[in-house]
Design goal:
Length: 432
Protein backbone atom coordinates (compact mmCIF):
# COMPACT_ATOMS: atom_id res chain seq x y z
CA UNK A 1 0.00 0.00 0.00
CA UNK A 2 1.17 3.56 -0.63
CA UNK A 3 1.61 5.89 2.36
CA UNK A 4 -1.75 7.58 1.66
CA UNK A 5 -3.60 4.29 1.83
CA UNK A 6 -3.95 3.81 -1.94
CA UNK A 7 -3.11 0.37 -3.32
CA UNK A 8 -0.06 1.67 -5.23
CA UNK A 9 2.59 4.35 -5.33
CA UNK A 10 3.31 6.90 -8.06
CA UNK A 11 6.75 5.42 -8.59
CA UNK A 12 6.68 2.59 -11.13
CA UNK A 13 8.91 -0.39 -10.35
CA UNK A 14 12.48 -0.63 -11.54
CA UNK A 15 12.58 -1.40 -15.26
CA UNK A 16 15.93 -3.21 -15.17
CA UNK A 17 16.51 -5.40 -18.19
CA UNK A 18 17.31 -8.64 -16.33
CA UNK A 19 13.87 -10.09 -17.07
CA UNK A 20 13.26 -12.23 -20.17
CA UNK A 21 11.81 -10.42 -23.21
CA UNK A 22 8.21 -11.16 -24.26
CA UNK A 23 7.70 -14.03 -26.68
CA UNK A 24 7.49 -13.09 -30.38
CA UNK A 25 5.53 -14.64 -33.26
CA UNK A 26 5.08 -13.13 -36.69
CA UNK A 27 1.71 -14.43 -37.75
CA UNK A 28 -1.34 -13.36 -39.73
CA UNK A 29 -3.30 -10.51 -38.16
CA UNK A 30 -6.87 -9.26 -38.46
CA UNK A 31 -6.70 -5.48 -37.96
CA UNK A 32 -7.77 -2.28 -39.71
CA UNK A 33 -5.29 -0.22 -41.73
CA UNK A 34 -3.75 3.15 -40.82
CA UNK A 35 -6.45 5.12 -42.67
CA UNK A 36 -8.62 4.51 -39.59
CA UNK A 37 -6.60 7.13 -37.69
CA UNK A 38 -8.28 9.82 -39.80
CA UNK A 39 -11.48 9.13 -37.87
CA UNK A 40 -10.09 10.62 -34.66
CA UNK A 41 -7.40 12.89 -36.14
CA UNK A 42 -9.82 14.93 -38.27
CA UNK A 43 -11.79 15.75 -35.11
CA UNK A 44 -8.63 16.75 -33.27
CA UNK A 45 -6.92 19.06 -35.79
CA UNK A 46 -9.78 21.39 -36.51
CA UNK A 47 -8.48 23.16 -39.62
CA UNK A 48 -6.93 20.10 -41.27
CA UNK A 49 -8.25 18.08 -44.19
CA UNK A 50 -7.29 14.46 -44.93
CA UNK A 51 -7.32 13.61 -48.62
CA UNK A 52 -6.86 9.87 -49.01
CA UNK A 53 -5.25 8.98 -52.30
CA UNK A 54 -6.57 5.49 -52.74
CA UNK A 55 -8.97 3.01 -54.23
CA UNK A 56 -12.73 2.54 -53.89
CA UNK A 57 -12.04 0.15 -51.00
CA UNK A 58 -10.24 2.96 -49.15
CA UNK A 59 -13.18 5.29 -49.82
CA UNK A 60 -15.63 2.69 -48.44
CA UNK A 61 -13.52 2.08 -45.34
CA UNK A 62 -13.12 5.71 -44.47
CA UNK A 63 -16.76 6.53 -45.19
CA UNK A 64 -18.15 3.69 -43.11
CA UNK A 65 -15.67 4.14 -40.25
CA UNK A 66 -15.99 7.93 -40.03
CA UNK A 67 -19.63 8.22 -41.07
CA UNK A 68 -21.19 11.25 -42.70
CA UNK A 69 -20.79 14.73 -41.27
CA UNK A 70 -24.29 16.14 -41.43
CA UNK A 71 -23.89 19.51 -39.75
CA UNK A 72 -20.38 20.43 -40.84
CA UNK A 73 -18.34 20.39 -44.02
CA UNK A 74 -16.44 17.10 -44.24
CA UNK A 75 -12.75 17.15 -43.35
CA UNK A 76 -11.75 13.99 -45.16
CA UNK A 77 -12.31 12.57 -48.63
CA UNK A 78 -10.83 10.06 -51.03
CA UNK A 79 -9.30 10.88 -54.42
CA UNK A 80 -9.85 7.57 -56.19
CA UNK A 81 -6.96 6.54 -58.39
CA UNK A 82 -8.02 3.99 -60.98
CA UNK A 83 -5.66 1.34 -62.24
CA UNK A 84 -3.14 2.77 -64.69
CA UNK A 85 0.28 1.96 -66.07
CA UNK A 86 3.45 3.93 -65.37
CA UNK A 87 2.89 6.11 -68.46
CA UNK A 88 -0.38 7.31 -66.89
CA UNK A 89 1.27 8.62 -63.73
CA UNK A 90 1.78 12.14 -65.10
CA UNK A 91 -1.99 12.31 -65.63
CA UNK A 92 -2.57 11.02 -62.11
CA UNK A 93 -0.42 13.82 -60.71
CA UNK A 94 -2.30 16.37 -62.81
CA UNK A 95 -5.59 14.96 -61.58
CA UNK A 96 -4.42 15.16 -57.99
CA UNK A 97 -3.38 18.79 -58.50
CA UNK A 98 -6.79 19.57 -59.99
CA UNK A 99 -8.61 17.91 -57.06
CA UNK A 100 -6.51 19.85 -54.52
CA UNK A 101 -7.01 23.09 -56.46
CA UNK A 102 -10.78 22.69 -56.43
CA UNK A 103 -10.85 21.65 -52.78
CA UNK A 104 -8.77 24.58 -51.53
CA UNK A 105 -10.63 27.10 -53.68
CA UNK A 106 -13.93 25.95 -52.16
CA UNK A 107 -12.65 25.54 -48.60
CA UNK A 108 -10.58 28.52 -47.39
CA UNK A 109 -10.93 27.17 -43.82
CA UNK A 110 -8.40 24.41 -44.61
CA UNK A 111 -4.94 25.35 -43.33
CA UNK A 112 -3.29 21.95 -43.26
CA UNK A 113 -3.84 19.37 -45.98
CA UNK A 114 -2.65 15.80 -45.57
CA UNK A 115 -2.29 13.65 -48.68
CA UNK A 116 -2.72 10.19 -47.19
CA UNK A 117 -1.24 7.31 -49.18
CA UNK A 118 -2.73 3.83 -49.21
CA UNK A 119 -1.65 0.36 -50.29
CA UNK A 120 -3.02 -0.23 -53.85
CA UNK A 121 -0.11 -0.59 -56.26
CA UNK A 122 -1.28 2.30 -58.46
CA UNK A 123 -1.05 4.61 -55.40
CA UNK A 124 2.34 3.26 -54.30
CA UNK A 125 3.67 4.22 -57.75
CA UNK A 126 2.75 7.87 -57.11
CA UNK A 127 5.37 9.93 -55.28
CA UNK A 128 3.12 11.66 -52.75
CA UNK A 129 5.96 13.40 -50.94
CA UNK A 130 6.90 15.19 -54.17
CA UNK A 131 3.26 15.99 -54.78
CA UNK A 132 2.96 17.42 -51.24
CA UNK A 133 6.10 19.52 -51.74
CA UNK A 134 4.85 20.83 -55.10
CA UNK A 135 1.42 21.69 -53.72
CA UNK A 136 2.85 23.20 -50.54
CA UNK A 137 4.95 25.60 -52.62
CA UNK A 138 1.89 26.49 -54.69
CA UNK A 139 -0.43 27.16 -51.72
CA UNK A 140 2.06 28.48 -49.17
CA UNK A 141 1.70 30.43 -46.87
CA UNK A 142 -2.08 29.88 -46.63
CA UNK A 143 -2.02 26.11 -46.65
CA UNK A 144 0.63 23.62 -45.65
CA UNK A 145 0.49 20.32 -47.58
CA UNK A 146 2.03 17.23 -45.99
CA UNK A 147 1.84 13.54 -46.76
CA UNK A 148 1.95 10.24 -44.91
CA UNK A 149 0.96 6.65 -45.51
CA UNK A 150 -2.10 4.99 -43.98
CA UNK A 151 -1.36 1.79 -45.84
CA UNK A 152 -2.63 -1.54 -44.56
CA UNK A 153 0.83 -2.97 -45.10
CA UNK A 154 1.90 -1.43 -41.76
CA UNK A 155 1.48 -3.40 -38.54
CA UNK A 156 -1.79 -2.00 -37.28
CA UNK A 157 -4.29 0.85 -37.52
CA UNK A 158 -2.90 3.08 -34.76
CA UNK A 159 0.28 3.47 -36.79
CA UNK A 160 -1.73 5.86 -38.96
CA UNK A 161 -1.52 8.38 -36.12
CA UNK A 162 2.21 7.74 -35.73
CA UNK A 163 2.71 8.38 -39.45
CA UNK A 164 0.59 11.57 -39.33
CA UNK A 165 2.42 13.01 -36.31
CA UNK A 166 5.78 12.03 -37.83
CA UNK A 167 4.88 14.15 -40.87
CA UNK A 168 4.27 17.09 -38.52
CA UNK A 169 7.57 16.86 -36.59
CA UNK A 170 9.76 18.52 -39.28
CA UNK A 171 7.22 21.40 -39.34
CA UNK A 172 7.51 22.17 -35.60
CA UNK A 173 9.14 25.54 -34.90
CA UNK A 174 12.57 25.51 -33.23
CA UNK A 175 13.00 26.73 -29.65
CA UNK A 176 15.85 27.04 -27.18
CA UNK A 177 13.45 27.41 -24.25
CA UNK A 178 12.52 24.63 -21.84
CA UNK A 179 9.04 23.26 -22.45
CA UNK A 180 6.90 20.15 -22.08
CA UNK A 181 5.22 18.50 -25.04
CA UNK A 182 2.46 15.91 -24.65
CA UNK A 183 2.55 13.66 -27.71
CA UNK A 184 -0.47 11.73 -28.94
CA UNK A 185 -4.04 12.70 -29.82
CA UNK A 186 -6.18 13.12 -26.72
CA UNK A 187 -9.83 14.09 -26.49
CA UNK A 188 -10.15 17.85 -25.88
CA UNK A 189 -11.73 17.25 -22.48
CA UNK A 190 -8.73 15.16 -21.39
CA UNK A 191 -6.28 17.71 -22.78
CA UNK A 192 -8.02 20.47 -20.78
CA UNK A 193 -7.83 18.42 -17.57
CA UNK A 194 -4.11 17.75 -18.05
CA UNK A 195 -3.48 21.42 -18.87
CA UNK A 196 -5.07 22.43 -15.56
CA UNK A 197 -3.07 19.84 -13.61
CA UNK A 198 0.24 20.91 -15.19
CA UNK A 199 -0.63 24.54 -14.40
CA UNK A 200 -1.37 23.72 -10.75
CA UNK A 201 1.87 21.75 -10.54
CA UNK A 202 3.84 24.69 -11.97
CA UNK A 203 4.99 22.72 -15.04
CA UNK A 204 5.21 24.55 -18.32
CA UNK A 205 4.90 25.89 -20.87
CA UNK A 206 2.98 22.83 -22.05
CA UNK A 207 1.89 22.15 -25.62
CA UNK A 208 0.19 19.21 -27.30
CA UNK A 209 1.02 17.34 -30.50
CA UNK A 210 -1.19 17.27 -32.49
CA UNK A 211 -2.34 20.80 -31.76
CA UNK A 212 -5.96 21.73 -32.32
CA UNK A 213 -5.01 24.24 -35.03
CA UNK A 214 -2.36 24.14 -37.74
CA UNK A 215 -0.82 27.44 -36.63
CA UNK A 216 -0.39 26.27 -33.02
CA UNK A 217 2.25 23.60 -33.58
CA UNK A 218 4.32 23.08 -30.42
CA UNK A 219 7.93 24.28 -30.56
CA UNK A 220 10.76 21.76 -30.08
CA UNK A 221 14.43 21.99 -29.19
CA UNK A 222 17.20 20.67 -26.93
CA UNK A 223 15.38 21.82 -23.77
CA UNK A 224 12.10 20.13 -24.76
CA UNK A 225 10.91 17.21 -22.68
CA UNK A 226 8.04 15.10 -23.95
CA UNK A 227 5.57 12.67 -22.49
CA UNK A 228 4.00 10.08 -24.75
CA UNK A 229 0.24 9.92 -24.23
CA UNK A 230 -0.10 6.88 -26.52
CA UNK A 231 2.08 3.78 -26.79
CA UNK A 232 2.08 3.58 -30.59
CA UNK A 233 4.15 6.64 -31.51
CA UNK A 234 7.54 5.09 -32.11
CA UNK A 235 8.57 7.01 -35.22
CA UNK A 236 7.22 10.31 -33.87
CA UNK A 237 9.28 9.84 -30.69
CA UNK A 238 12.37 8.99 -32.72
CA UNK A 239 12.02 12.14 -34.84
CA UNK A 240 11.47 14.34 -31.78
CA UNK A 241 14.59 12.86 -30.19
CA UNK A 242 16.48 13.57 -33.42
CA UNK A 243 15.46 17.22 -32.93
CA UNK A 244 17.00 17.20 -29.45
CA UNK A 245 13.89 16.56 -27.32
CA UNK A 246 14.08 14.07 -24.45
CA UNK A 247 11.35 11.55 -23.70
CA UNK A 248 10.30 11.32 -20.07
CA UNK A 249 10.07 7.61 -19.31
CA UNK A 250 6.70 6.79 -17.76
CA UNK A 251 3.81 4.36 -17.97
CA UNK A 252 0.80 5.65 -19.92
CA UNK A 253 -1.87 7.82 -18.26
CA UNK A 254 -4.50 5.12 -17.91
CA UNK A 255 -6.15 4.56 -14.55
CA UNK A 256 -5.26 6.31 -11.30
CA UNK A 257 -1.91 4.60 -11.04
CA UNK A 258 -0.76 5.21 -14.62
CA UNK A 259 -1.89 8.85 -14.53
CA UNK A 260 -0.08 9.36 -11.24
CA UNK A 261 3.22 7.99 -12.51
CA UNK A 262 2.89 9.81 -15.86
CA UNK A 263 2.37 13.19 -14.18
CA UNK A 264 5.10 12.38 -11.65
CA UNK A 265 7.63 11.89 -14.45
CA UNK A 266 7.03 15.51 -15.55
CA UNK A 267 6.87 16.75 -11.95
CA UNK A 268 10.28 15.20 -11.19
CA UNK A 269 11.79 16.71 -14.36
CA UNK A 270 10.50 20.15 -13.27
CA UNK A 271 11.68 19.69 -9.66
CA UNK A 272 8.15 19.84 -8.20
CA UNK A 273 8.23 19.09 -4.46
CA UNK A 274 6.59 15.74 -3.60
CA UNK A 275 4.34 17.44 -1.04
CA UNK A 276 3.07 19.86 -3.73
CA UNK A 277 2.56 16.98 -6.17
CA UNK A 278 0.52 15.12 -3.57
CA UNK A 279 -1.50 18.23 -2.70
CA UNK A 280 -2.44 18.83 -6.37
CA UNK A 281 -3.18 15.22 -7.30
CA UNK A 282 -4.74 13.90 -4.07
CA UNK A 283 -8.36 14.86 -4.86
CA UNK A 284 -8.52 13.70 -8.52
CA UNK A 285 -6.56 10.55 -7.64
CA UNK A 286 -9.03 9.74 -4.84
CA UNK A 287 -11.93 10.25 -7.30
CA UNK A 288 -10.25 7.88 -9.78
CA UNK A 289 -9.65 5.23 -7.11
CA UNK A 290 -13.23 5.52 -5.92
CA UNK A 291 -14.73 5.29 -9.41
CA UNK A 292 -12.65 2.22 -10.35
CA UNK A 293 -13.38 0.56 -7.00
CA UNK A 294 -17.07 0.77 -7.87
CA UNK A 295 -16.40 -1.56 -10.84
CA UNK A 296 -13.91 -3.82 -9.08
CA UNK A 297 -16.56 -6.13 -7.69
CA UNK A 298 -17.73 -6.98 -11.23
CA UNK A 299 -14.27 -7.40 -12.73
CA UNK A 300 -12.03 -8.81 -9.97
CA UNK A 301 -10.74 -12.30 -10.67
CA UNK A 302 -12.32 -12.40 -14.15
CA UNK A 303 -10.02 -13.81 -16.82
CA UNK A 304 -8.94 -11.69 -19.76
CA UNK A 305 -7.56 -12.47 -23.22
CA UNK A 306 -6.12 -9.90 -25.66
CA UNK A 307 -5.91 -10.29 -29.41
CA UNK A 308 -3.39 -7.86 -30.95
CA UNK A 309 -5.09 -4.72 -32.23
CA UNK A 310 -4.60 -1.19 -30.90
CA UNK A 311 -1.09 -1.42 -29.35
CA UNK A 312 -2.77 -0.30 -26.12
CA UNK A 313 -2.84 -3.89 -24.87
CA UNK A 314 -0.06 -3.65 -22.26
CA UNK A 315 -1.19 -0.42 -20.55
CA UNK A 316 -4.80 -1.65 -20.52
CA UNK A 317 -3.77 -5.06 -19.16
CA UNK A 318 -1.70 -3.32 -16.46
CA UNK A 319 -4.70 -1.17 -15.45
CA UNK A 320 -7.16 -4.07 -15.41
CA UNK A 321 -4.74 -6.32 -13.52
CA UNK A 322 -3.46 -3.92 -10.89
CA UNK A 323 -6.45 -1.66 -10.29
CA UNK A 324 -9.32 -4.05 -10.97
CA UNK A 325 -7.89 -7.45 -10.07
CA UNK A 326 -8.51 -9.11 -13.47
CA UNK A 327 -6.39 -12.11 -14.54
CA UNK A 328 -4.84 -11.85 -18.03
CA UNK A 329 -4.41 -15.26 -19.66
CA UNK A 330 -2.74 -13.92 -22.80
CA UNK A 331 -1.76 -10.37 -23.78
CA UNK A 332 -1.28 -10.39 -27.54
CA UNK A 333 0.07 -7.13 -28.98
CA UNK A 334 0.79 -6.39 -32.66
CA UNK A 335 4.11 -4.75 -31.89
CA UNK A 336 5.95 -3.87 -28.67
CA UNK A 337 8.30 -0.95 -28.45
CA UNK A 338 10.33 -2.31 -25.56
CA UNK A 339 11.81 1.00 -24.40
CA UNK A 340 8.50 2.86 -24.42
CA UNK A 341 6.77 -0.04 -22.67
CA UNK A 342 9.49 -0.79 -20.12
CA UNK A 343 7.55 0.75 -17.20
CA UNK A 344 4.33 -1.01 -18.21
CA UNK A 345 6.12 -4.36 -18.49
CA UNK A 346 7.79 -3.89 -15.11
CA UNK A 347 4.45 -3.05 -13.46
CA UNK A 348 2.81 -6.11 -15.02
CA UNK A 349 5.74 -8.20 -13.85
CA UNK A 350 5.35 -6.83 -10.34
CA UNK A 351 1.70 -7.91 -10.37
CA UNK A 352 1.96 -11.22 -12.22
CA UNK A 353 5.49 -12.46 -11.64
CA UNK A 354 8.26 -13.29 -14.10
CA UNK A 355 6.20 -15.52 -16.36
CA UNK A 356 4.33 -12.77 -18.19
CA UNK A 357 1.72 -13.94 -20.74
CA UNK A 358 2.80 -11.28 -23.27
CA UNK A 359 3.08 -12.31 -26.90
CA UNK A 360 4.17 -9.96 -29.70
CA UNK A 361 2.64 -10.45 -33.16
CA UNK A 362 0.70 -13.67 -32.43
CA UNK A 363 -0.75 -15.67 -35.31
CA UNK A 364 -4.50 -15.15 -35.27
CA UNK A 365 -5.49 -18.78 -36.04
CA UNK A 366 -3.30 -20.28 -33.33
CA UNK A 367 -4.50 -17.59 -30.95
CA UNK A 368 -8.15 -18.36 -31.71
CA UNK A 369 -7.52 -22.00 -30.76
CA UNK A 370 -5.93 -20.94 -27.47
CA UNK A 371 -8.73 -18.48 -26.74
CA UNK A 372 -11.46 -21.08 -27.37
CA UNK A 373 -9.66 -23.57 -25.14
CA UNK A 374 -9.17 -21.01 -22.35
CA UNK A 375 -12.78 -19.68 -22.49
CA UNK A 376 -11.84 -16.31 -20.94
CA UNK A 377 -14.48 -14.23 -19.16
CA UNK A 378 -13.61 -11.29 -21.44
CA UNK A 379 -11.82 -11.14 -24.80
CA UNK A 380 -10.46 -7.83 -26.10
CA UNK A 381 -10.23 -7.97 -29.89
CA UNK A 382 -10.88 -6.28 -33.23
CA UNK A 383 -14.34 -5.90 -34.78
CA UNK A 384 -13.77 -8.74 -37.22
CA UNK A 385 -13.24 -11.29 -34.46
CA UNK A 386 -15.77 -9.99 -31.95
CA UNK A 387 -19.00 -11.16 -33.61
CA UNK A 388 -17.90 -14.77 -34.27
CA UNK A 389 -16.53 -15.05 -30.73
CA UNK A 390 -19.75 -13.62 -29.28
CA UNK A 391 -21.69 -16.19 -31.31
CA UNK A 392 -19.54 -18.87 -29.68
CA UNK A 393 -20.57 -17.61 -26.25
CA UNK A 394 -17.57 -15.43 -25.36
CA UNK A 395 -17.92 -11.86 -24.06
CA UNK A 396 -15.87 -9.41 -26.11
CA UNK A 397 -14.72 -5.81 -25.99
CA UNK A 398 -13.89 -3.99 -29.23
CA UNK A 399 -10.33 -2.72 -28.89
CA UNK A 400 -11.02 0.12 -31.36
CA UNK A 401 -13.31 1.79 -28.79
CA UNK A 402 -10.18 2.52 -26.77
CA UNK A 403 -9.00 5.05 -29.33
CA UNK A 404 -12.41 6.68 -29.89
CA UNK A 405 -13.30 7.11 -26.21
CA UNK A 406 -11.71 9.56 -23.76
CA UNK A 407 -9.95 7.11 -21.40
CA UNK A 408 -6.81 8.89 -20.21
CA UNK A 409 -6.44 10.72 -16.91
CA UNK A 410 -7.88 10.49 -13.40
CA UNK A 411 -11.39 11.61 -14.31
CA UNK A 412 -11.79 8.95 -17.00
CA UNK A 413 -10.50 5.98 -14.91
CA UNK A 414 -14.02 4.91 -13.92
CA UNK A 415 -15.27 5.17 -17.53
CA UNK A 416 -12.33 3.06 -18.69
CA UNK A 417 -13.20 0.36 -16.13
CA UNK A 418 -16.85 0.60 -17.17
CA UNK A 419 -15.92 -0.15 -20.81
CA UNK A 420 -14.81 -3.60 -19.61
CA UNK A 421 -17.57 -4.14 -17.06
CA UNK A 422 -20.33 -3.49 -19.62
CA UNK A 423 -19.86 -6.59 -21.84
CA UNK A 424 -19.93 -8.79 -18.73
CA UNK A 425 -23.13 -7.06 -17.56
CA UNK A 426 -24.68 -7.55 -20.99
CA UNK A 427 -23.97 -11.27 -20.99
CA UNK A 428 -25.37 -11.65 -17.46
CA UNK A 429 -28.56 -9.90 -18.57
CA UNK A 430 -28.80 -12.11 -21.68
CA UNK A 431 -28.59 -15.20 -19.48
CA UNK A 432 -31.43 -14.09 -17.18
S1 LIG B 1 -5.20 1.45 -47.51
FE1 LIG B 1 -5.17 -0.66 -48.21
S2 LIG B 1 -6.02 -1.83 -46.47
FE2 LIG B 1 -6.60 0.32 -46.18
S3 LIG B 1 -8.64 0.50 -47.14
FE3 LIG B 1 -7.13 1.13 -48.69
S4 LIG B 1 -6.75 -0.77 -49.84
FE4 LIG B 1 -7.72 -1.39 -47.90
Amino acid sequence: MSPDGLPFTATPPDTGCAAPPPAVERGQRAVFCGLTGIVWLHRKIQDAFFLVVGSRTCAHLIQSAAGVMIFAEPRFATAIIEERDLAGLADANEELDRVVDRLLARRPDIKLLFLVGSCPSEVIKLDLSRAAQRLSEQFSPDVRVLNYSGSGIETTFTEGEDACLSALVPELPETEAANLMVVGALADVVEDQFTRLFEQLGIGPVAFLPARRADALPPVGPETKFLLAQPFLNETARLLEARGAQRLAAPFPLGAEGTDAWLKAAADAWGVAPSHFDAVTAAPRARAVQSTAARREKLADKSLFFFPDSQLELPIARFLTRELGMRPIEIGAPYLHRRHLAEETAMLREALGEDLPILEGPDVDAQLDRCRAAKPDLTVCGLGLANPLEAEGLSTKWAIELVFTPIQGYEQAGDLAELFARPLDRRTRLRV
